[in-house]
Amino acid sequence: MWTIPTYILAAFAEIGGCFAFWAWLRLDKSPLWLVPGMASLGLFAWALTRIDADFAGRAYAAYGGIYILASLIWMWAVEGTRPDRWDTIGAAICVVGAMVIIFGPRST
Description:
Layout: H1 3-26, H2 34-49, H3 56-77, H4 85-103
């Protein structure tokens, strides 16, 4: 039930944390950006361990599709660049793949 929202939380926490490093190293922001950035990366790691999956690799694989979509949303909302049609098509393919991994029937 909480799988998709938890993946979304993890994605935005990871992106936010990584963006703090990007801002510091590429946008000449203060090193103080790293403090919330590292906290955000800690939240990301914690959230990803809350995923209801039997294997870490499966949780990470499904997360990849959600992460790609979240990255494009971040690019649009935070960086002001709208995804183009190829971004959108690529993200859709990845999200479909993630949904197959998350909701696909498993043999016991």
